[in-house]
Predict the 3D structure of the following.
Amino acid sequence: MEGKRQAKIARLIQKELSEIFRRYTSSMGGVLVSVSAVRVSPDLSIAKAYLSIFPPEKSQEILFNVQNQTKTVRYELAQAVKSVLRKCPDLQFYLDDSLDYIDNIDRLLEK
């Protein structure tokens, strides 16, 4: 069960990460990265961010690049939330495959 503080911080991190990725991907042309969910550990030390990447063909490549740039993203996030959080949590990025799962269910139901 997630507490109120965890949920509030998760929403804040999701909003700020979305803005960071929007700035970076605007120069890439044709790639859209959105943060679909953020889960924060109870001690607020780890934030797991689930990314939805369009087009799906480039998702593994983009996720790999984001994971390699985790320190840079964490620094920018820390600058954005420094008035709210004393310490920025460590970031872990995962691919959100819920849209693919929904498409697969739709295809199966159509059969």
About this structure: The beta strands are 32-40, 46-54, 90-95. The first helix runs from residue 4 to 25. The domain at 4-110 is CATH 3.30.300.20 (GMP Synthetase; Chain A, domain 3).
